[in-house]
Amino acid sequence: MSGEDDLIRLQAEPIDVGAVVGWVSDVDGGAIAAFVGATRRQGGEEGKTLAALDYEAYEQMALGQMRQWAARARQQWPIRKLAIVHRTGRVEVGRPSVAIVVSTPHRAQAFEACHYLIDALKAELAVWKKEVWSDGNSSWVD
Question: pLDDT tens digit string along 78-102?
Answer without folding.
Answer: 999 999 999 999 999 999 999 999 9
